[in-house]
């Protein structure tokens, strides 16, 4: 069985960040359950390119390569810090420049980090509706990690949620046909049709 690829989108702003820590935990748990290659994208590394894309209407080569990786991925892990009771502006901006159909039917696990557990509802009132609008298949379990979850290396409740969400993502990926770029030579235009087009 060939390996699938998942792309991990981390919108953490610091280095290291709790957002990246949660992203890595979810990626590692998914890889234990399903044969997947993992690619991590730190959005802070592409912040200027994302902003320029809004102004020019075109992505830089580096940003286009990331967007293409997301389009071709078999699954997505999307993690953001919570600011003002919602996802970060950088996180939203990235998905604003992504093609509107890029996530259609794609399995996604959503997660977030914040200073207090009271911000956890942002996953359900902000993130899940956004991915539903983009026609992604969002795993039932979302994962929120508050500051206290990291105080002792992450409590067992967080670990349980990570494992459950990873299991759901792995199952969704395994049930879905592998994503691959269309082969322009797979269904060539018949020679007679090409001749007819030239004669017209």
Would you kindly provide a written description of the structure presented here, covering whatever features stand out?
With 200 residues, the protein is an alpha/beta fold. The chain has a single domain (4-199), classed as 3-Layer(aba) Sandwich (Rossmann fold), CATH 3.40.50. The chain contains eight helices and seven strands, in the order βαβααββαβαββααα. Strands 1, 2, 3, 4, 5, 6 and 7 form a seven-stranded mixed β-sheet that branches. The longest helix has 20 residues, at 156-175. It is globular, with a radius of gyration of 19 Å. The relative contact order is 0.16. InterPro entries: CE1759_FMN_reduct, Flavoprotein-like_sf, FMN_Rdtase-like_dom, NAD(P)H-dep_FMN_reductase.
Task: Give the tags.
200 residues, alpha/beta, Rossmann fold, 7-stranded mixed sheet, globular, CE1759_FMN_reduct, FMN reductase, FMN_Rdtase-like_dom
Named CATH topology: Rossmann fold
Please indicate the count of domains.
1
Within CATH, the superfamily carries the name Flavodoxin domain
| Number of helices in the DSSP assignment | 8
CATH architecture: 3-Layer(aba) Sandwich
Show unreliable segments: none
Q: Write down how many β-strands occur, each being a DSSP E stretch of 2 or more residues.
A: 7
Strand content: 15-25%
Binned, the helix content reads 40-55%
Order of helices and strands: EHEHHEEHEHEEHHH
Mean pLDDT: 88
CATH class: Alpha Beta
Q: Summarize the main sheet.
A: 7 strands, mixed
Tell me the Rg in angstroms: 19 Å
Q: Structural class, from helix and strand content?
A: alpha/beta
Q: Choose one word for the global shape.
A: globular
């Amino acid at each position: 069985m060939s390996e699938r690829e998942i792309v991990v989108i981390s919108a953490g702003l610091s280095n290291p960040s709790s957002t990246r820590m949660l992203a890595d935990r979810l990626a590692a748990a998914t890889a234990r359950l399903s044969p997947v290659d993992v690619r991590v994208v730190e959005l802070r590394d592409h912040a200027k390119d994302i902003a320029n894309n809004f102004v020019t209407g075109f992505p830089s080569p580096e940003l286009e390569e990331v967007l293409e990786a997301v389009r071709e991925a078999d699954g997505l892990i999307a993690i953001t810090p919570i600011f003002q009771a919602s996802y970060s502006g950088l996180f939203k901006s990235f998905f604003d420049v992504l093609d509107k159909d890029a996530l259609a039917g794609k399995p996604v696990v959503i997660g977030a980090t914040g200073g207090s557990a009271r911000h956890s509802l942002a996953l359900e009132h902000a993130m899940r509706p956004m991915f539903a609008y983009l026609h992604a298949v969002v795993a039932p379990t979302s994962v929120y990690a508050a500051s206290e979850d990291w105080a002792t290396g992450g409590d067992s409740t967080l670990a349980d949620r990570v494992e459950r969400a990873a299991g759901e993502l792995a199952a969704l990926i395994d049930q879905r046909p592998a994503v691959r770029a269309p082969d322009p030579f797979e269904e060539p235009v018949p020679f007679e049709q090409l001749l007819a087009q030239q004669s017209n």
